[in-house]
């Protein structure tokens, strides 16, 4: 399940966009706001306590900061695709390598906490669906060949399970698992807070978004 569900979430989102060609952006924005709140809350409820439980709080804090900085660095190349932005030129025909590589590094890291924290799986699934929908809309409307678009989404789909697999099966990675989890916490903190920040466009009050954000936090609390 840990491997299969993230793959299905991405592929089904792609098929959904390919077959229905969704026009309404409002639903996706609500889902994105929900996913940001849900992921942030799960990170704080689930991963925070464990990352700091070994008592080396400052060292672990440094790894969390490293994750935040790493994510900021990755977004120079992905232009924010991890939190629901695609700024890559639609007219380009070439395979978007920079976007692909930065998204892959992000997604592999994201898979690490799933190995030991089953509830994080739900947070990542809910986070992946709007991102996969937004990426699919971009790829399908771009000049990139359909085969390459499918290849992009297929490879993107397996990156998180690869991260989960490596975290659980490579001895060396197991010895640094708390550090890796702390880096993942930083990545989640960055993307989820950016999602929440960007979902309140111009700080205008939006009841729908506020509600889905509160619901996201409450569900995460009781999981
Ligand atoms: Zn952004
Ligand atoms: Zn992600």
Task: Summarize this structure as a short list of keywords or feature phrases.
223 residues; mainly alpha; 9 helices; 78% helix; binds zinc ion
Describe this protein's structure.
The chain has about 220 residues and is mostly helical. It has nine helices and no strands. The chain has one domain. α3 (about 55-80) packs antiparallel against α4 (about 95-110). It binds zinc ion (2 copies). One zinc ion (ZN) binds near residues 82, 106 and 127. One zinc ion binds near residues 82, 106, 107, 110 and 127.
Secondary structure blueprint with pairings:
Elements: H1 4-20, H2 25-51, H3 57-78, H4 97-111, H5 118-141, H6 146-169, H7 171-175, H8 177-199, H9 207-222
Bound molecules: zinc ion (2 copies).
Structural class: mainly alpha
Tell me the radius of gyration: 17 Å
Count of β-strands = 0
Helix proportion: over 70%
Quote the distance from N terminus to C terminus.
17 Å
Number of helices: 9
How is the main sheet built?
none
Shape descriptor reads globular
Number of domains: 1
Oligomer: single chain
List all distinct small molecules, including ions and cofactors, that are bound in this structure. Answer: zinc ion
Low-confidence stretches: none
Strand content: under 5%
Mean pLDDT: 90
Q: Would you list the SSEs in sequence order as H and E?
A: HHHHHHHHH
């Amino acid at each position: 399940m840990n491997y299969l569900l993230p793959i299905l979430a991405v592929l089904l989102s792609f098929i959904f966009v390919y077959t229905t060609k969704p026009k309404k952006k409002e639903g996706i924005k609500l889902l994105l706001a929900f996913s940001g709140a849900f992921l942030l809350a799960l990170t704080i409820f689930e991963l925070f306590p464990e990352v700091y439980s070994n008592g080396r709080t400052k060292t672990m804090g440094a790894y969390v900061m490293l994750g935040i900085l790493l994510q900021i660095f990755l977004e120079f190349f992905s232009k924010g695709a991890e939190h629901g932005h695609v700024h890559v030129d639609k007219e380009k025909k070439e395979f978007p390598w920079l976007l692909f590589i930065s998204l892959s590094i992000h997604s592999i890291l994201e898979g690490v906490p799933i190995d030991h924290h089953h509830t994080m799986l739900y947070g990542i699934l809910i986070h992946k669906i709007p991102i996969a929908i937004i990426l699919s809309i971009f790829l399908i409307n771009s000049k990139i060949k359909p085969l390459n678009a499918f290849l992009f989404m297929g490879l993107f789909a397996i990156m998180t399970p690869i991260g989960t697999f490596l975290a659980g099966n490579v001895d060396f990675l197991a010895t640094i698992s708390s550090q890796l989890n702390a880096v993942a916490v930083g990545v989640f903190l960055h993307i989820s807070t950016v999602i929440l920040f960007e979902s309140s466009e111009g700080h205008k009050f939006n009841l729908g978004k506020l509600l889905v954000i509160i619901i996201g936090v409450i569900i995460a609390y009781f999981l």
